[in-house]
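Internal ticket - ligand job 384, flavin-adenine dinucleotide:
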Amino acid sequence: MASYDVIIIGAGSVGLPTSFFLAQEKLKVLVIDELPSPGQGQNKSAIGGIRATHSDPAKIQTCQLSLDVFSSWKDRYGDDIHFQRGGYCFPVYREEDESSLKQLLETQKKFGLNIDWIDAHQAVKLLPGISPDGLRGGTYSPEDGNLSPMMASNAFYNQAVRSGVTFRFQERVAGIEKENGSAINVKTDKGTYAAEKILNAAGAGAREVGRMMDLDLPVEPDSHEGGVTEPVKCFFQPLVVDIRAFPGSKNFYFYQEAEGHLVFCLTPEPIIPGTNRDSTSSFLPQAAQRLILLFPRLRNIRVRRVWRGLYPMTPDGVPIVDRVQDRNGFYVAVGFCGQGLMLGPGIALNLVSLITKGKPLLPEEVFRSFSLYRDFGRPSEALK
Ligand SMILES: Cc1cc2nc3c(=O)[nH]c(=O)nc-3n(C[C@H](O)[C@H](O)[C@H](O)COP(=O)(O)OP(=O)(O)OC[C@H]3O[C@@H](n4cnc5c(N)ncnc54)[C@H](O)[C@@H]3O)c2cc1C
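stdout (structure tokens):
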């Protein structure tokens, strides 16, 4: 039976960078995914936003690591992943939103985020054509950015293969064999593989994989939709997040990617639990209304395509990244909600450290926020 230092279940936003960075440490790594090629789970549903602008310090610092990886990738490894450092802007039209975002600035700055409040005049300059009626200003974090999720996953995959990682696609993990509580063999529908360490990075399938180790991981998928327009001349840089709630939706966010297409997404209200990925008839009318409300000049832009994918949610909106107690050799990196792409490389670097040195890269008191053993009833991440 083939045997590995680490087997990763899931070739997605988290599994792919983790495989690459583990191979850089000379570990023998196998990645198994039931889909036919890398990044075909939720990774390809992502619209490509990469921000360190969060309220949870562990997420802030992890995404700062990710931004370093993404922004230097082309120079280091040669692959163009369409990374643009366009920043993030949260324009604000309501007093209560202004005070809650200003309150968050304190934590964000304390943890080293380059972010500030801009006034309405500056916001209009940054976002030409934004509706000025009632605009109070907003937050702006110029070091955040965006990229192509598929180009990024292919880049991680190609470099991982070059570094010696083995991938097995179209193999579904069906069970994990244990000995004295320790994970030892991964069984798929096509074979059995032995490993010193096993990482559950199975995205929306994480709970099912957890059960194979008698673990009940609190990860429940709900669905979100995205869309892309025809390309138009680039006229703004930041990814824009409108945090106002309207009937049927909460946040609405969009940006203009490197080739001029606008890519957009919204958070449905109420949430739509489950794994159905058929496009709904309500998403496009809602998203179009919100886009035109914020940017009236976009009223004639044509939408090319919409899609629906899953957020693997945890109760507090923060992922679970941990070494499992009493299950020697079993690790989890699951529950990435709407932020697995942006957290992926930063989490990968922490996992490599956790797996090879027994402790994460971030200070342990910060990283503890990702613990499997935390109180999931704590106040949830403000910028989910
Ligand atoms: C519309 C939309 C927009 C989004 N926009 C963004 C964004 O702008 N920025 C951002 O950071 N995030 C965004 N996200 C969220 C992001 O896509 C996810 O958080 C992320 O992809 C999760 O990463 P993952 O590695 O946990 O899961 P995935 O990327 O889904 O990878 C998990 C893999 O595990 C495999 N798998 C599962 N079970 C098994 C099994 N039993 N056997 C074998 N293989 C298995 C799956 O096939 C899958 O390929 C968005 C999501 C949606 C739906």
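Auto-summary: The two ends are 43 Å apart (CA to CA). The chain is about 30% helix and 30% strand.
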